[in-house]
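In these records, each integer encodes one residue's backbone shape. Here is one protein:

___
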Amino acid sequence: MSYNFDRLRVLVVDDNLHIRTLVSAILHAFGVTTVLEASNGEEAWKILKENRCDLIFVDWVMDGMSGLEFSQKVRTAPDSPNQFVPIVMITGHTSHERVHAARDAGVNEFLAKPVSSKSILARVISVIENPRPFVRTKAYFGPCRRRRRTDYDGPERRVEDSVVKPGKKSANAA
């Protein structure tokens, strides 16, 4: 299948210039014409507030605001410009605890370093072809954390209004 990424606007956030340059070059090679770069979470937040972004790649470990804190801010800050923007966490720390923490911060996809063009393309395609619905609970807002669909319709199943679509607030929203 062929993709046209020329209108995609991607923000790459990493304190390592070489990783930022690598990810940006790979995205450009796939046809992404607009790649914005930030070296830390604070700079990324400013860029995000001033520019429309369709996708964010963010490193976990950075000085100041970490990628995890940045992701949580994108999802939950009252002044977030786009709570629904797909976020791909890039990190060399791939323990189950880290993957779960990233998922719980509202990250859509997880990418282990060292990255490859194939792995980056796979994450871009994943967030485009398989967008997960967003869920709002008292303790969480972000993409549904379940990877598999379930047909379970029992009494413990989430109520329909807890699923949030971009541009809409759920009935449970505070």
The beta strands are 9-13, 34-38, 55-59, 87-91, 109-112, 134-136, 141-143, 163-164.
